[in-house]
């Protein structure tokens, strides 16, 4: 890679995709959304078009327009805009990677394809490589997401030796609960100065103990400010305080899960907490009953007010 890399650390919001009532992407919300994240949540980096952003339900053209808007409005405000380019077709991934480079994104991430699946970690490495060469100057992150992709090889096996085939490789976003594998990713990443970002918000403290450098998640959209306090407490060695904050976030997420917490519900919760109009989800997700979102949003507001 020709330019020096800004290491990705701290909390990164996995953003929602604003839609109009008619279900079209609503770029007019992106500017206010960025201001909200920075001013109200102390969040300075975003991960767009991922699971939370319903990336797999968007067309390639819509994904490009969204990435363009996030980079344009985020310039001079956000520290990093990471564009998720994972798709079922490698051609689409490559097109999105090339586009991300052309608009000045700070990095790209790719999930494993999940219809035809790679038969082993080497096949997946090859897939990631063939995407990365369309954006050779952009940091590339592997997005490990076995719960959605069904591809559950150890992420550590994907990382092992990947620097030899992908010079731009820069780390992993780890959305899984296997702490052995996570720890091995951190261990391997140390000598390469890569970032390991954790993606299970309700378990972040455990990942920090193992050396994760930050986190990418949906809940940082609306309680990132408080989770930043957890990171600060952990860095200060105040484990009691860090644990108390993680317990509170766990309680909210458990409450939400018991009510049925999919991306549609999560999106409506974001609208309720932030006041930004995220709009409906896209099919096959169904709109969430407002009362359900309001019950979760109330817990989040109480959590934020308490800190
Ligand atoms: C599978 C999935 O989308 N996980 C998200 C990010 O990786 C998380 O941020 C969850 O939304 C969060 O941990 C709540 O369970
Ligand atoms: C949560 C996350 O990282 C995603 O939306 O893809």
TrEMBL record:
Its EC number is 4.1.3.3. It is an enzyme of class 4 (lyase). SMART domains: DHDPS. It catalyses: aceneuramate = aldehydo-N-acetyl-D-mannosamine + pyruvate. InterPro entries: Aldolase_TIM, DapA-like, Schiff_base-form_aldolases_CS. Keywords: Carbohydrate metabolism, Cytoplasm, Lyase, Schiff base. Pyruvate binds at residues 52, 216. It holds the Pfam family DHDPS. This is N-acetylneuraminate lyase. It comes from Cirrhinus molitorella.
């Amino acid at each position: 890679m020709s330019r020096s890399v800004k290491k990705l650390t701290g909390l990164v919001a996995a953003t929602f995709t604003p839609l109009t009532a008619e279900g079209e992407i609503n770029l007019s919300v992106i500017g206010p959304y960025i201001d909200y994240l920075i001013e109200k949540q102390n969040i300075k980096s975003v991960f767009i078009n991922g699971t939370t952003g319903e990336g797999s339900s968007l067309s390639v053209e819509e994904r490009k327009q969204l990435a363009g808007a996030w980079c344009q409005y985020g310039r001079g405000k956000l520290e990093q805009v990471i564009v998720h380019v994972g798709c079922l077709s490698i051609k689409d991934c490559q097109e999105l990677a090339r586009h991300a480079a052309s608009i000045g994104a700070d990095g790209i991430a790719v999930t494993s394809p999940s219809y035809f699946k790679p038969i082993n970690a080497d096949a997946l490495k090859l897939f990631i490589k063939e995407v990365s060469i369309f954006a050779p100057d952009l940091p590339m992150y592997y997005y490990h997401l076995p719960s959605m992709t069904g591809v559950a090889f150890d992420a550590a096996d994907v990382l092992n030796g990947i620097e030899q085939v992908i010079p731009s490789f820069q780390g992993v976003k780890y959305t899984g609960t296997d702490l052995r594998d996570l720890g091995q990713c951190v261990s391997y990443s140390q000598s390469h100065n890569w970032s390991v970002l954790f993606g299970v918000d309700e378990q972040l403290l455990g990942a920090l103990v193992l050396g994760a450098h930050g986190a990418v998640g949906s809940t940082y959209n609306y309680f990132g400010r408080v989770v930043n306090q957890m990171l600060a407490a952990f860095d200060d060695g105040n484990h009691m305080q860090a644990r108390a904050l993680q317990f509170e976030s766990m309680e909210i997420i458990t409450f939400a899960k018991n009510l049925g917490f999919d991306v549609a519900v999560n999106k409506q919760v974001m609208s309720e907490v932030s006041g930004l109009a995220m709009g409906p989800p896209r099919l096959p997700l169904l709109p969430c009953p407002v009362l359900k979102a309001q019950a979760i949003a109330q817990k989040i507001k109480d959590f934020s007010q308490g800190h």
